[in-house]
Amino acid sequence: FFRAQLSEEFSRSQRYGRPLTLLLIDVDNFKAYNDRNGHPAGDIVLKEVSRIFIRNVRGTDIVARYGGEEFVVLLPETPLDAGVSVAEKIRRAVEEHYFTFVSTQGSQKITVAIGVASYPEVQVSSEQDWVEAADKGLYEGKQQGRKRGGVGGGAGRPWRGLGGGGLGWRGLPRWLGGRSGRGLGRRGLAERWRCP
Prior knowledge:
Order of helices and strands: HEHHEEHEHEEH
Number of helices: 6
Distance between the termini: 22 Å
Strand order of the largest sheet: 2-3-1-4-5-6
Radius of gyration: 16 Å
Largest sheet: 6 strands, mixed
Number of strands: 6
Helix content: 40-55%
Oligomer: single chain
């Protein structure tokens, strides 16, 4: 489903010159948490994290599990600065959330790292290159430590850090119009995960 939506939104963005931002999100140290607390606890964390993502985006945005402990958020009609604000809002919401089994976590909180790539700021010719730019931002952010993120540069543009001492939360983003009823959105992911 996500690949079809990604292709459709990317083509629309190219055709009409509209902004489109992609967040690639990875749950930090998830394997260690899963090993320490068991797979059922890990499943609970993934469900709770997905709910946090859903609560912090618009109903027209697309939230999907990308694989393992990775998620993607597709933000149509969203320029880079607003996408970075959403990424920071999500990063902070996860960090501040109380997760089950917190007493066995010690000082290890559940946090996320986020890669951000925005079209047309990232000059790419395909959605695959665009995903790779977000992945590069995620990788670079993780190299700087947990609960970080980065903006993928692509085409020779520099990466820049986000969160954890990087770019701070600057308030709610200025949303530029949106289309209703498109994609998985809030309700679709909740139904997929069987969330209440």
